[in-house]
Sequence to fold (256 residues):
Amino acid sequence: MKLTILGCSGGIGPGTNTTSFLINDHILIDAGTGVGSLTIEQMSKITHLFLTHSHLDHISHLPFMLNNLIGEVDSTLQVFGSQHTLQALKNHIFNEVIWPDFTRLPTKESPCVTLHPMEEGESVTVGEVKVVALPAEHSVPTLGFWVGNLSGQGYFAFSGDCGVNQAFWQALDELPEVEVLIVDDQYMEKEKAISALAKHYYPAALETDLRQLSYQPQLYLTHLPAYKAGEVFEEAQAVLSDWHPRVLKTGMVLAF
Ligand SMILES: [Zn+2]
Ligand SMILES: [Zn+2]
Fold:
């Protein structure tokens, strides 16, 4: 399995994009500004999109991608997410005001995108890749994902946008061990008030919650702020020294 990081930042700036991960050539997790780096040929190969939640930095480029693909490919993009996320897309994006209703275009019978509810604990298998929805804790209903090869090798997990909780860690611990764990770390200790409100981790809170996991995968931090990533990572390196954390970066390719 190949995991290409199209975007993983908490904001935009030169060389950074918001969250979108490409698995092999045909599965996306989230559709933030990172999708903008794909060519139309690459976009046309994507068959499945799994959305963590409804926030703009994770869905912003789905409408643009569909606009590229309509009329160019015959296939339907299947989008999976919680009921809350899918309803938000219908109400606030594909509402004929912000963007056309691509769930009914080019025809109602054969649209270029279909929306499929996926709840915590459910799994979807796409070819050799299995995706399991995990609970997460954020300011809107959010899913994390466990992703594995059916061949039995190469597992990773992603917390989605996430703050202090038990459910994600308990659910993750019950699944086969992952090699790589990608976790939100947007804030610093001095921002713990906003961290609690926005429900994104800061290093000390993450360190406490990581103790709920019974093993130590390679830890990658994601969703660092675009213009203070260095400061946040410095604090994370000190607080999470036992975990030897790395920063996830746009353009990175991880192979399992
Ligand atoms: Zn969010
Ligand atoms: Zn986000």
